[in-house]
């Protein structure tokens, strides 16, 4: 699924938030998810970070997601879980719109 950033907000805030989420998850998984060092602030790179974080979370088993992202004892995990839940909701809305447009 080609993930794009389509929600409200300033590009700078979203960019920094995605970078923080990715770095946090990279630390938890002990592997690189995306190259974020010196990444120019563009919508293309915002989509790249969004897609990278989405793909990384999707590739995790449900048990691993529950252990890392939905870990109630880790305050930062709640932030990532909130982002993920919102991202899934936006993906569903995008897919519904795409289905309606293709039906026309």
Task: Set out the fold topology.
Elements: H1 11-29, H2 43-58, H3 62-68, H4 75-103
Helix pairs in contact: 1-2
Explained architecture:
- The chain is mostly helical and 104 residues long.
- It has one domain (11-103).
- It is 68% helix and 0% strand.
- It has helices at residues 11-29, 43-58, 62-68, 75-103.
- The radius of gyration is 14 Å and the shape is globular.
- It starts with 10 loop residues before the first helix and ends with a helix.
- The relative contact order is 0.14.
- The mean pLDDT is 89.
Instruction: State the shape.
Output: globular
Q: Could you report the average pLDDT, rounded to the nearest whole number?
A: 89
Share of β-strand residues: under 5%
**Count of individual helical segments:** 4
How many domains?
Answer: 1
The count of β-strands is: 0
Radius of gyration: 14 Å
Distance between the ends: 22 Å
For the sheet with most strands, the description reads: none
**What percent of the residues sit in helical stretches (DSSP H or I)?**
55-70%
Which structural class do you get from the secondary structure elements? mainly alpha
Q: Unreliable runs, pLDDT <50, ≥5 residues?
A: none
